[in-house]
Write a structure and sequence with these properties.
By secondary structure, the chain is of the alpha+beta class. Among the domains are: 129 residues, no CATH class; 172 residues, 3-Layer(aba) Sandwich (Glutaredoxin), CATH 3.40.30. Helices cover 27% and strands 20% of the residues. It is built from eleven helices and 23 strands. The strands form seven sheets. Strands 7-8-9-10-12-11 form a six-stranded mixed beta sheet. A five-stranded mixed beta sheet has the order 2-23-5-21-19, with helices on one face. Helix 4 packs across helix 8. The protein is elongated, with a radius of gyration of 25 Å.
Length: 504
């Protein structure tokens, strides 16, 4: 269903052609330097906005980044800037979007006999309920159960598909996640991960989920868990894209990473009451899909953070819906109107940090070779710092500096004009085992039908005149003659930082 397009403020940005004599206090250079094709250069801000002289005729992209650290506010730039033009954040997400308290449930089991049954507590979309489950199969790493209480109109998962999921999970996903992030918890001493197939997950509207309450009394649990590591899995529609073995194992790669992350970041660090932005953990699990070799369905997530606005009929399903404050700072719950872009934005940011640390390479037999990125992610879940403090601890730089470079890389990557690794994602490479490609390409064609054209770049005279706190706007400028002045005023509270990137 198309989404409602948000109203935007009209804005006409001044673009004057003139040659200044000199300006000590306006930010203009007396003798503008040359600006090479593909060059990226910081511009000075003047009273909150930017005013700069361009010597070379050509086409430029201005990268406008708001370094303001508040959440939800949208500041104006262009002639309508000012406090009266701000859009303040909505009220906090109400508690109805949070899960209710769990009832008591049966404890976790050790290795069960083939005729075993056990009770699980599950969420069905409105409340927690206890269901009975029968034993399905035991493998080296898994115990699979089937809910026998809840009617299942979808029918069982095809046995060959399930065998493929188990094989991929045990042979690729778990070894790769353990190599990068560390071992998953084993609080019930079973040596295995439980998987419950239950239609209650379908009723919840999810594909799969895990509960941190299963591994510890973390903040917000408000009740008991099931006493062991459990992936709660829906029954896939046989006609859907989620019914194949590679699609299902990609989901499992995502979910088990949540448990690994929570165990090391919160439990091992003895900070059970820690609160971290939910989209940061979602972005890390999206990265787990990628780095275990199943960056397939994940492509739709990062595409939503680049530009799927035309497909969804919503400008927020693009880079304009992304803010580092909304996925890095604070501890808010899901923003249902921007869920895809915020998940994708968090993944893109973490992928950028992983690559800037060196990334990893893959040998022909599928072995991971750490080039610095794997150690970086291990450090991420090992240090106790959360969110922006973690970024600054591990990079030695401010969040604002890192974010500015990241936003720049999103618009530079794929244009083949600049080879600075700070401003470019690494080329995608194919996993020799799964045949899916690691990483991102802002100009990729996804599954043969969705062709990306990079992040949204607005002509300067058509810009919507609003920028999210912690967000970015890309403006395209045409310079017709040497010495042309480009002026973009902005609300000073936006703490605007601006770069120019010459593309023609």
């Amino acid at each position: 269903m198309p989404r409602t397009r948000l109203a935007v403020l009209p804005a006409l940005l001044a673009l004057a052609a003139c040659k200044p004599d000199k300006t000590d206090d306006t930010g203009l250079s007396e003798e503008p330097e040359s600006f090479a094709l593909g060059e990226v250069r910081d511009l000075e801000t003047v009273d909150g906005g930017v005013q700069a002289t361009f010597e070379q005729p050509g086409t430029y992209i201005l990268v406008l980044f708001s370094a303001a650290d508040d959440e939800g506010t949208r500041y104006a730039y262009g002639p309508d800037y000012g406090a009266e033009a701000r859009t303040t954040p909505p009220d906090p997400v109400p508690d109805r979007y949070r899960l209710p308290e769990r009832p008591a449930a049966g404890g976790g089991a050790a290795v069960p006999p083939p005729d075993s049954t056990r009770t699980f507590t599950v969420y069905d979309g409105s409340s927690y309920v206890n269901v009975e489950a029968e034993f399905v199969t035991l493998t080296d790493e898994l115990v699979i159960w089937r809910d026998t209480t809840t009617d299942n109109p979808m029918g069982d998962i095809d046995e060959e598909v399930l065998d493929g999921v188990v094989s991929y999970f045990e042979d690729l996903v778990l070894p790769r996640e353990r190599a990068i992030w560390g071992e998953e918890p084993d609080v019930d001493d079973s040596g295995r991960i439980d998987v419950l197939l239950s239609y209650t997950v379908n009723e919840y509207g999810a594909i799969a989920y895990v509960s941190w309450c299963d591994i510890a009394e973390l903040d917000g649990c408000r009740g008991s868990g099931n006493g062991g590591e459990t992936i709660y899995m829906s029954y896939p529609d046989p006609e859907s894209n989620y019914s194949t073995d590679t699609a299902i194992v990609e989901i499992w790669a995502h979910e088990i990473n949540h448990l690994i992350y929570a165990w090391h970041k919160y439990v091992v660090n003895d900070q059970l009451d820690a609160r971290e932005n939910v989209y940061l953990t979602e972005g890390m699990s999206e990265l787990a899909q990628d780095l275990t070799g199943f960056n397939n369905g994940n492509q739709y997530i990062w595409a939503a953070a680049i530009d799927m606005s035309e497909y969804y009929g919503d400008e927020d399903y693009s880079i304009q819906g992304v803010s580092i404050n909304d996925f890095l700072r604070g501890d808010g719950y899901y923003d249902l109107s921007r869920d895809g872009p915020l998940r994708g934005g968090a993944y893109l940011f973490l992928r950028y940090l992983f690559e800037q640390a060196g990334g990893m390479s893959i040998e022909d037999d599928g072995t991971q070779v750490d080039e610095g990125g794997m150690a970086f992610l291990q450090d991420w879940i090992t240090v106790p710092e959360l969110g922006p403090d973690c970024v600054e601890t591990l990079t030695g730089r401010t969040v604002e500096d890192v974010a500015f470079d990241w936003y720049t890389a999103l618009v530079v990557t794929g244009r083949d004009l600049n080879d600075d690794p700070v401003y470019n994602y690494q080329p995608r490479v194919q996993d020799p085992i799964t045949k899916f490609e690691y990483g991102i390409d802002p100009y990729a064609t996804i599954h043969g039908w969705l062709t990306l054209n990079g992040p949204v770049v607005q002509p300067i005279d058509e810009a919507d005149g609003r920028i999210r706190a912690g967000g970015v706007e890309y403006l395209q400028v045409t310079v017709d003659e040497p010495g042309q002045v480009v002026s973009v005023p902005a609300d000073p509270d936006a703490e605007l930082r601006v770069r120019a990137f010459r593309i023609e």
